[in-house]
Every structure is written in C-alpha cells, then in structure tokens.
Amino acid sequence: MSNKIKKTSGDGAKESILIGDSWKKKITKKGDYIISTKSLKKTFLDGLKETTVLKGVDLNIKSGEFISIMGRSGAGKSTLLYQISLLDHPTSGEIVIDGLDAHNLSSEDRVKFRLHKLGYVFQDYALLPDLTAGENVAVPLIMQGYTKEEANKIAQENLAEVGLETKFNNLPSKLSGGEQQRVSIARAIAHSPTILFADEPTANLDNESSEMIMQIFKKLHKEGQTIVMVTHEEEYGQFTDRVIKMSDGMIV
Amino acid sequence: MLPTKNNINIWRVGFFLAYRQIKRANLWTTILIVAVMALTFLNLVVVNGVLVGLIQGSVEAHRDRGTGDIAITKLTQKTEIERTEDILNVLSGLSQVEHVATRYTGTGSINADYRKKLRQDQAPNRVGGTIAGIDAINEDKINGLSKYIVEGSYLQENDADGIILGATLLYKYTPVESAGFQTLKDVKIGDRLKITVGKNSKEVILRGVIKTKVDTNDFRIFMIESEAKKLIGKNNINADEIFVKLKPGSSLVDAAKVQQILFNNNFDEGAKIQTWLEAQPKFLSDLISTFALLGNLIGSIGIAVASITIFIVIFVNAITRKKFIGILKGIGIDSKSIEISYVLQSIFYALAGSIIGFVILYGFLVPFVDAHPINFPFSDGIIYAPLTGTFVRAIILMITTVIAGYIPARIIVKKNTLDSILGR
Fold first, then answer.
1. Interface predicted TM-score of the whole assembly (ipTM), two decimals
2. What is the CATH number of the domain that holds A191?
C-alpha cells in the first residue's frame, strides 16, 4: 500500500491508469489478500456536526473467502462495504483491491473497475423497472462490449444458474421479492466478477427465499467466488468462512 | 466523442436504455408529450406562416389578379407607354409568354345622381376614380377578373354601355364615411351612371361589381377599351399599362429573363418594365419582414414553452429514477450512456412531434387553407410554409429539445452514486 487517501471528495481530474485489457484479469492468487484496508475512516458532516462512522478499520480479505460483516444497526458495516466496493470515497485510509490502490483510480476508472471486476447485490434488489429480468442482467454485459445476442445468452445462462430460466422476459414488477433478488445475483455474477459484494441480501425476504439466496452464495463460494456480505442475521454467518463483527465503527 | 470501442459501447447502452424506457413508458404520457411537441411545432410554423401568409396572400393576389408576371407601366414623366406596338410584337414572339393585356387609363368621376335635381346643400352621389379600358377577354386571361365578380356579371367583349365597378368605390362594400374618401351609395346592378373624364362624358350601365383585394382593380371603373379611349381622348395605340402572363410554372427568374429581353430592345426608355415582385407595393415587402419578425417572436415563445416542457418531463423522469440512475452507475454503466438515453428520449419526443406536425401541416392545414383562404379585408390569407423554413424550424425545435433533455439528465447523473442508490 503506497498512497494514503486524504479527503477524497472528488478525483475526476486523475488520469486513467486502467489502460488496455490486462487489468480486467484477476491478479490476486487464491489465498492472497484480495482486499486490504488500513486505517480506513469515514466521517459524515451533518450541518456543523461531524459523525465518524468508520474509525480506522484494518481489514484483510483473502481471495476465495466468503466473509460476512455483522453488527448492530449503525455499527458501520454497510459504510465499510461501500468503501471497499468503491461505491463511496473514504475520508482517509488506504484500500487495495486486487492489487490496485483505490486512491489512484479516477472517477472513470472506478466506474470501469466496478463494471469489470465487482458485482453487487443490494438489499432492495436494485433492478431497473423498465427492463426485463434478462435485460437487467444483460445491460452491464453490453456495456462491457458484448453483442446483444451474446449478452442475452450469458444472461439466460446466469438466470438458469439462479433457477429463473423461465423468467427472462418478466419485468421486475412481475417477480416476487426472492425472484428479484435472484435476478440481482444473476446480474452481479454474469461477468464473473473478482469480488461479489452483498448488502443485506436477505433483509427483505422471507425465510424460504433467504435460504435459497444463501444456498446460491454457498454454491458460488464453492466455485471460488470471493464474497463479502453484510448481514445482521446471525444464522447466515454459518454459511461464511469468517464473520467480521463491527461495533461503533471498529472491527471487534 | 470519438468512435472508440468504449464510446461505441456507451452509445449502445444509451440506445438500449432509451428504447426500453420509451417502449415501456406509460402510453398516455407518451401521447401527451408527443402532442405537446406536435402543437409546439405547429405553433412555430403556423403562426409565422399565417402572419406572413396574410401578406403573401396579398403578394400572390397582386400577381395573379393584378399585374401578371410582368408589369409595364408609364414612366413618371411620360403620358403613355411608348412603342406599345413594338413591345406587343416582341412579346408575341416570345415562347414563354402566355397572354398579354393592355389597359388604357384616365382619371375621371362617376355620378349616380346625374338625373336627379339636388338641393344646394345636398352632395352629389359621385366618386372619383380611374377609368380603365380593357379587352375583356384578354384581361380575363391575365388575371381572371371574371372570377371575382361579387355582384352582377363580367363585361361582354363588345358591351359599349356596360361598366364594372371596383368594390372599394361602393359604400356597400366599403362603408367608410370620410370627407377625403367618397363612395357611391345605393347603387344596384343595372343602374344608369354617368362617367365624366375632362369634358367628355358617357352614360353607362352597371353590369357588375368586382372584388379582387388588389387596389389596382378594386379602385377602378372598367369598361371596354374602345369606349374608354373615346372618353379619355386617346387616338393612338400606346397603352398606359401592359400586363404579361408567362406560361404556367414560370418562376421569377423566367420573368426576369423576359424583362431583360425587353430591356435589350431599349423599351425601358419609354416605359417602366418590372417583374411582379418589383411591381408589388413596397409596403407589402416591408410588412412581410415585420410579420416574419413577429411570427419568429411568437415562435420563440413556443420554443421556450417546448423546452420547459421537455425539461420538466425529463427532470421529473430522471428525479423519480434517481435511485435507478445511481444503480446503473453503481454497476458500472458509464454516466454518458445514461445521459445519452435521456437525450435520445428527448429526440424521440421532438421527432415524433415534428413528424405529426409535418403531416398535419402539409397533409391538412396548408391544402385546406389554400382551398379555403382566410378572408381578411385586404387579402386572402394562406399559410406560408415553405419546406426549407419548416425544416429549419424542426431542427431548431430538435436542438432546443436535446439541450432541454440533456440538462436535467446531467444534473441527476452528476449526483453522488451512493446517495442516489440510497435515495439520499
């Protein structure tokens, strides 16, 4: 870890370092650290009041690990996930993901990095309402340069992977919560991401659907997928290799 | 954006998102927006077209019902068109000339009370005007005067006693009471009237009333050429006005060519030779410029309304989808793709509106108003909407709409990705 991140409010002026296609490949070998953070801090300013949500988090996650981050509401688990998944900028500290120092990434690089190397599953599924299940999965693939036919084929395969092969043409509004979350997982894994991030993926689901989602994660993990999951549901910790507990912005 | 591989993908995703958003948008909302755009387009073209068309109608009337394609008149310092016979000979030899008509004019008055004994304080029912001697058949071929008879009938070829009065000379058609402007009152078809030119006078019968909305006709007293010449005291062939009609489909350029031939014969030394455009009253061309400016001003307001409409539509659309825009950015979709998708939606609305506007304009409005001109006192109003001008306005509408669609999309897309996803 070479550069420290200081007050990273915007980095649009940085030049792209993600040149060519070689960076798209997974660099970290299985068992090596694929995510490392050091002294990671995040402070929010609410009027004149500063609230520090992350108070210097040091975290190492190995390639191929299935990690769950747990803690009470307000412990900072989701905030940590947003920082290490490059959806947000930390106030200070260091993040290295798959060999790349996040500090060196411009805004455009972060978008490219997220597109090619990261996958996301959100608590509320985050599907686009105007697109069918298949199209939701296909959009990031088209952005990556796949033809529409190729993207649809991959989307169909991934929907089959999560048991929704017959729902390709269904709009999200025609799917149950559990089905929507499975579409969300299909979208997240369609481009074989280096790391899959999941923020409370079962929070809005009934037990049966939650169990199904966790079984999918378990299967993906078995296939070597690195998964970082935030959850407040203790029983799902058993599915993961390691449980990281957070309290008051610190790992305990 | 250069067509790099990444930029092509940005456009592909932009199209992908735009197409699906339009396809799955609420049908009635889409119809409403497209209707607004179509009305804006029509507002932009028709308001200007009607304003200019009012005057254009007058310009065209001046040509069709008045001068024809070329007007040859007296020079200010001359009493007649010199070498009229030579001019007529040259014109008759030109293949592009369809018809030629000559007029012999003189100033006089027409009296409706000449057989009544008037009291001393009683003003005579009399009006001054220009007497125009015409070849009824030739004249009709030039400007179709017989079509504009509003009462009675057109002049017969050898009707030595008959006259036609321009509607402006009759109170019935021009109910104006003014010391400086006299009209004949209570005059009916078949009434006997007396025309006086200098010391000559003649009793005539009113055959018809003509209303062409062209002053050179509507202020005049028409009679056959031979009788008019006797009244005016004209003994030679030299006319006061010669009107030339070219073959159908002739343009201003063709008129200018014929004009040049007449110039080459030095006829301009003894006559004023003008194309129909040069012969039209100057106030008409001035009015066209003024009305065009007025039309553009009103059109600009229409453009502003359309811009605001599209801005609101896209802004509301984008703000209600802020979360989804955040998600798209979160999963790695380039911001430019999202902006492009909104710009393409704006283009769709503007294009659909313009196409519908085009169809309404050229498929219905223009032909309808051409067939049923708007009846203004001084002209028959048409919708003046040349294709080039309409295309320019459609492009202006398109550009404005694109900008109006891009700005709100850019505002929303620029928001912090995580804040958008979390709805903050």
1. 0.86
2. 3.40.50.300
